[in-house]
Structures are given as C-alpha cells and as structure tokens.
Design goal:
This protein is an alpha/beta fold and about 300 residues long. It has a single domain, classed as Glycerol-3-phosphate (1)-acyltransferase, CATH 3.40.1130.10. The chain contains eleven helices and eight strands. Helix 1 runs antiparallel to helix 2 and helix 2 packs antiparallel against helix 4. The relative contact order is 0.16.
Length: about 300
Amino acid sequence: MNSLSAIPAGTLREALPALLSAWIAAPEAAQRSQVRVQPVLDAATDTEVSELASHLDSLGEEDRFYAAHPLARRFAREWCTALLTQWEVEGLHYLRQAQEQGPTLLLCNHLSYLDTTATDALLCWSFAQSLADRIVAIAGPKVYADPLRRFAAASLNTLPAPQSTRLDGTASLGPRELARKALESVRLTHEALDAGYIPLLYPEGSRTRTGRMRPFLKAVSRYLRYNDLRVVPMSIVGTDRVFPVDADRLQPAPVRMAFGAPQAVPENGERDVLEALHQQISELLPESYRPSPEEPPFQ
C-alpha cells in the first residue's frame, strides 16, 4: 500500500468517498454510499484526515492493540448503510447481561472479511453503540493486507494474531516465532479484557469456504483462561453474500446476527466450554450454515 500520509488532506477528503464506493459492485448502492459518507469527510478537519492517513499507513505493523480511528469509524458506519439492505439482531440482551456482570468475550462463526464491520454497524443501529465501541476483533494478518481491508480495520478496534500453521499466512514464520506471536496475542487479549473491552474471536481460524461452520481451533481455549470470564456465542449470516470469499467487490444483501446465553468459564474447563459454544453457535445458525454432521468440534 502506497503512503497516504504524503497526499494532501484536501485531496484525500475528495477522493476517499469515491475510492471506497468503487468497491461496491452495484451502481445504485455505490452512489448511495458516496452520498452518505461524503458529509462525514466534509465535516472532518485537515488534521483528522491527515491522522487517518498516518493510521492507515502504520496499521498492523506491530503486535499491539489498535484503537479504531474515530473518523474511519464514522465513515464505515455510514458506508455500511448502502450494503446491509435489511438487517436483524436477536438476543442482544445476552451480550448486555454478560457485559454488565463482568469480563466478556464473543465467539462467532466466520463467513467474510465484512463480519466485524457488519457487527459494529448492526450494534450501532440497535442502539448499542457503547457495546460496539468496546468490541476488539482478534484479527489475522490478512485483515491488514489490502486498502479495503485496511480501511475496514481502521474503523475497528483490532489486535493482530497469527494464523494457525494449518491455515494460510504462516509460511514465513518459524515454529518459535509463531508460538511467541500466539502467546502475545493471548496476553494482549487479556489486557483488553482488563481494560473493559469485549474481544471478538473467530474460533474457526479463517473464513469458511462452504458457508458451513467448521471445527474450532483447539488453541482458542487459551483465550478463555481468564478469571471470571463469560463467553457469549454469536452467529452472523448474510455477510458471505455481501463479500464472498472469492470476490473482489461487494454486493448489497440482508444480514442477520444473533447472540446466545453466556457461558461462564470454570477453572480448567476451557475445552469443555469451547465444545459447548460450538454447539450453541451451530444452533443459532440456519440449517445450511451449520457444521457438517460428520465433522468434529475441534481441529
């Protein structure tokens, strides 16, 4: 990605709405998107625009917590109005209940690079912006890989995490470095819990290629080793139609999100809780998105 910091703020202010709208394949939706987001940038100061450019240039370079950039967040929440044509949120009281009781972590199936962006938008539109602002996505390296995904990541709280050796994206990492990064990701996640954030994990490790939820990575249990933790199961459906795995542009589509009853994590009970959550998330999904019956809960 070329440096954005070298581009004058005024030029970026004029170019960004058209640039981001160009990623939407449907012409009418792209036009609606541009109309919605242009006032956000028009109201931004040159300093805000320049700070956003610097944030985008450095995003994902270090293993640390990245707070959402306020301007990117306002931009993305407006941009989503052209993509999520209909939406539904169920069981939000479960997330509210868990967060009110103490440290909370979310586990969700993974369909698309748009999953976290859609989650943020739907929570805001459900009068739960305070919850949306606290969510921090545990993000694999590909989330920072291209301009569209980097901009989406800039609008969210994120924590970098390495992918499993079973998945793509780890060829350049030796076993020791991969282990170090994995442990650092767990430590940073626990620091985020300490600070009152709600980490969002995709325990399959990568997006499903079939739409059906896949087995969870066993290593996810490490994230659950935190005192007095509650884990909320969550499902998302429809983002695979908005931004399919093999697509390079987005299409408007309906999206549905649901939350289930929180699971408390007893000492040394992380694996059992993770297996129960796999079942809970499966039950929150439509039949065609549920795991294949022959697949185990872990890989």
